[in-house]
Write a sequence for this structure.
């Protein structure tokens, strides 16, 4: 908890702070996050398939503040115990990739980009789910006056060249 | 084959008639192939199957334009294609170019969540058309018995699991309620039992046909003719026409065998086609008869009519229907079910070479193929693996594929 409490608000460490919530109770997590000072610059929302490393946060560092990360990393932390309870909790999560009916996911996704200046989407090449949301997400973003950037396929471990290109495109989208 | 022409004509006339009914105010359903069609048929709700419509669009050579359109709309290039082609055609809305004038908006939609894309695709359909959406869950079977086809006909309660069947029945009851509301008719359980018995009779006839062809010295009916004779009656299963057609198909096949008629008089090798049809180039199935004496005699559609459909009702036809539907797609595509079934079928049909269509963008069916490949190899079947797609011809190189299959046939014959 002390380590999370000391995290800065932006960059790759913001990814760590967000995902620390997998191990804390919601109340503890919210209390810790509320101590972090707000970021600066245009508001960026990350969307797309699950990303288990802070690469997208690092790419956006210094270009704006990430106000929401909707790349599903796992909103419920698997813990020893009753697997049925865990599955029940996952089923309640509207941004779980297999949320049913899938319209719940779409609504939560569109709600999640509220207030964004830029929505940045990227997907895993094996994606079967999120890709069906992309045209609708673009429309929703543009309808609220935000820009929408589709980075296309994000490699499992993006190399520096991919990261440089992504950063350039995000900077252009924000300019 | 006269039966195949009759089936195609029936289906074309049926769709034209459907359009007429809809213009007169009738409602229709748009559904996936692995959903309980029986409920729609029984409640007299006309129904169009997504994968069938996809195949029709592909056969009309319209798929490349729609997949280009799919890219332009912002859907990424690795999304599954077989089940999405009709959605993109509907989004494009150029109905005057589509087969038989395209599809009007359906009143109700139904899909099983048997892979990740299906709920999403049908959600987009619901948004596009305003139709009521019914999604059926597809929970995994914890201990899938490899020899499912032996147990599925009678012992399906243990095979699929009581909890899974309870869930499927509950979700089908919700669908029945919607169909009652749509039609203003009550669901008659006794009449439904009689209807299910007719489907059972139809599938047993197809089981008989499969046995006839499997045992024949030379293949009397290739897969290009089997498919319409099996699948069009399946889309209308239990109807008077479907039963009558399947009987005629059985008789025509038996007659051919009695008269010693074969697809290829010089048949030397028997092949199986694994995967959905190659809908944009079905003449490929006959490309090796003259050159190599090799006949595609097996595709999944005919034998699956028996193993995938016949379910004893044990006095509860709705639960028997749940047993038929609850693992339909998984049995065709997922290990250990698909590989064990294909090995059983390869032995029964005396298969020499299997050609496996691996649809890289339809990962649910594509990846299961690798287990089939290894199992068939271990059983002594020569394998040709084709990475392409059922409905998207943009990466299909017919000459190169003929060369690959031809080379395998020459090795097998040597």
């Amino acid at each position: 908890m002390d380590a999370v409490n000391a995290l800065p608000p932006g960059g790759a460490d913001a990814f760590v702070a967000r995902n620390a919530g997998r191990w804390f109770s919601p109340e503890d997590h919210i209390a810790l996050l509320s101590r972090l000072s707000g970021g600066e610059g245009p508001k960026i929302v990350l969307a797309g398939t699950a990303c288990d490393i802070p690469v997208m946060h690092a790419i956006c560092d210094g270009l704006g503040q990430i106000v929401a990360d909707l790349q599903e990393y796992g909103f419920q932390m698997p813990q020893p115990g009753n697997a049925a309870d865990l599955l029940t909790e996952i089923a309640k999560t509207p941004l779980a990739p297999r949320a049913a009916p899938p319209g719940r996911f779409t609504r939560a996704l569109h709600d999640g980009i509220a207030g964004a200046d830029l929505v940045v989407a990227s997907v895993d090449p094996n994606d079967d789910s999120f890709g069906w949301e992309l045209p609708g997400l673009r429309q929703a973003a543009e309808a609220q006056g935000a820009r929408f950037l589709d980075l296309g396929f994000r490699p499992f471990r993006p190399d520096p060249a991919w990261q440089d290109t992504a950063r350039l495109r995000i900077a252009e989208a924000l300019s | 084959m006269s039966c195949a022409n009759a089936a195609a004509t029936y289906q074309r006339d049926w769709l034209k008639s459907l359009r007429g009914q809809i213009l007169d105010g009738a409602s229709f359903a748009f559904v996936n192939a692995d959903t309980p069609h029986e409920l729609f048929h029984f409640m007299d709700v006309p129904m169009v199957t997504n994968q069938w419509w996809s195949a029709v669009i592909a056969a009309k050579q319209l798929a490349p334009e729609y997949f280009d359109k799919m890219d332009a709309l912002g859907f990424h290039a690795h999304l599954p294609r077989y089940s999405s082609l009709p959605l993109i055609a509907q989004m494009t809305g150029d109905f005057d170019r589509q087969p038989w004038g395209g599809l009007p908006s359906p009143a109700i939609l139904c899909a099983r969540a048997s892979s990740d894309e299906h709920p999403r695709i049908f959600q987009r359909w619901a948004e596009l058309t305003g139709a009521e959406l019914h999604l059926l869950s597809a929970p995994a079977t914890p201990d899938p018995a490899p020899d499912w086809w032996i147990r599925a006909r009678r012992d399906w309660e243990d095979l699929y699991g009581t909890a899974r069947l309870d869930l499927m029945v509950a979700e089908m009851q919700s669908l029945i309620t919607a169909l009652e509301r749509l039609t203003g008719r009550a669901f008659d359980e006794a009449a439904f039992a009689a209807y299910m018995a007719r489907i059972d009779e139809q599938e047993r006839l197809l089981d008989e046909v499969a046995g006839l062809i499997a045992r024949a010295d030379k293949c009397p009916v290739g897969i290009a003719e089997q498919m319409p004779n099996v699948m069009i009656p399946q889309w209308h299963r239990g109807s008077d026409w479907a039963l009558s057609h399947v009987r005629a198909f059985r008789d025509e096949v038996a007659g051919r065998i009695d008269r010693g008629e074969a697809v290829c008089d010089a048949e030397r090798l028997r092949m199986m086609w694994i995967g959905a049809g190659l809908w944009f180039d079905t003449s490929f199935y006959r490309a090796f008869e003259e050159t190599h004496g090799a006949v595609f005699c097996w595709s999944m559609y005919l034998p699956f009519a028996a193993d995938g459909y016949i379910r004893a009702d044990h006095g509860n036809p709705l639960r028997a229907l749940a047993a038929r539907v609850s693992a339909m797609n998984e049995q065709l595509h997922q290990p250990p079910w698909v590989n064990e079934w294909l090995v059983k079928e390869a032995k029964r049909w005396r298969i020499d070479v299997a050609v496996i269509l691996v649809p890289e963008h339809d990962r649910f069916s594509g990846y299961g193929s690798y287990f089939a490949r290894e199992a068939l190899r271990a059983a002594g079947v020569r394998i040709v693996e084709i990475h392409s797609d059922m409905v998207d011809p943009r990466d299909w190189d017919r000459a190169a594929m003929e060369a690959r299959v031809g080379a395998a046939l020459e090795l097998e014959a040597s």
In short: The first strand of chain B starts at residue 29 and ends at 31. Chain B is about 55% helix and 10% strand. The CA atoms of residues 74 and 241 of chain B lie 43 Å apart.
